[in-house]
Amino acid sequence: xxxxxxxxxxxxxxxxxxxxxxxxxxxxxxxxxxxxxxxxxxxxxxxxxxxxxxxxxxxxxxxxxxxxxxxxxxxxxxxxxxxxxxxxxxxxxxxxxxxxxxxxxxxxxxxxxxxxxxxxxxxxxxxxxxxxxxxxxxxxxxxxxxxxxxxxxxxxxxxxxxxxxxxxxxxxxxxxxxxxxxxxxxxxxxxxxxxxxxxxxxxxxxxxxxxxxxxxxxxxxxxxxxxxxxxxxxxxxxxxxxxxxxxxxxxxxxxxxxxxxxxxxxxxxxxxxxxxxxxxxxxxxxxxxxxxxxxxxxxxxxxxxxxxxxxxxxxxxxxxxxxxxxxxxxxxxxxxxxxxxxxxxxxxxxxxxxxxxxxxxxxxxxxxxxxxxxxxxxxxxxxxxxxxxxxxxxxxxxxxxxxxxxxxxxxxxxxxxxxxxxxxxxxxxxxxxxxxxxxxxxxxxxxxxxxxxxxxxxxxxxxxxxxxxxxxxxxxxxxxxxxxxxxxxxxxxxxxxxxxxxx
Length: 503
Prior knowledge:
mainly alpha, Serine Threonine Protein Phosphatase 5, Tetratricopeptide repeat, 27 helices, globular
């Protein structure tokens, strides 16, 4: 039982890593009490940090009382942004005691204020994300649990306090995505919530003239990484980005989601609109976004330039394995096998496996070491076209291929999965379902990711048709697969879909 509880704690911490980055400090919607003075200058400092103009935000903080809890919070927010972006181990070691020091100060201030528990919960969420980035997932999970309990207590004491609607709403959605068979574990830990409750809380916060932007930001993140992201959510995201043109944070999130959602051309336009001047913190991740757009378009030389720029400018561990894998792909697809294998060997030399793309890269390396067999180039080309959102071009490539073109069950399973996804995006759902079923059958008991992903998509297809029982069976089948590199995201989406249908 203990191992399963730890697993749930770990999953909560991993999910929160998607949504905590820019939840940030909230503008008060009720009168501040004596100890809690959110001055106009502090509000401006928060706004600067939220937009990733961290240095100007820190300069504004110098004018404020050192024990003002809002100053403490904005400082904590700024620390989080810098640590997450830099992944500087020595800086983390130097700053890690600040969590307890700041919590102690805020806790000792006026207890009757709704900001007492709220700011403590937000600091705990900040450090949950920091701990995840530096490899302390279980500790991060406990931070999330403690934050949740503070927010729940605050909600009971101050039911009209809007900041809680934003933060607690996010946690309620995440808790609600746990499947029915495992809900006893969050209950045992004192965690309760459901997706509809959480989304209602976020939508309520979105109507507020002050809170609206941040609540919409949180909702967009959850839709993209936990629930489903469709054309409606995409339009709302673009509207948010347009209305906040000087906010690098929102632009970065919109670009990342666009790439994740097979919208390369949209990502390219967002990158053109990225606010650029010396006031903004430098984020090497944008070099990766540029590289991805060029990879998806088949411009391998340009992609290599941007991938190498990321390696030169980033001193952390995240996405290093994935970057070396992509450099392998670019060189291999251009026919330079020698250089490709050099990058392939680098996958195992450094980086972390916190991100799923890094896990996938590491698994690719390990499989190659066992088999000495490189993937089928036709399958790689299909995947790249699909990932880029070039579905008609992918269909043209697909029309020249059949399952018989592939000599191994694994390649055949992948071919059927890729074909299913392409036809699904082209709204040919029955045809897509046939390919997904074939991929599941070919995978059998292997730990390839094609079967769980196929089962997930089959669940969505049946859900769209209104076949709840069939959809339920497919979502549960997706969750049942073990040890594949995309288990976290597949399980989260399947659980959320089951909860959405009332299971």
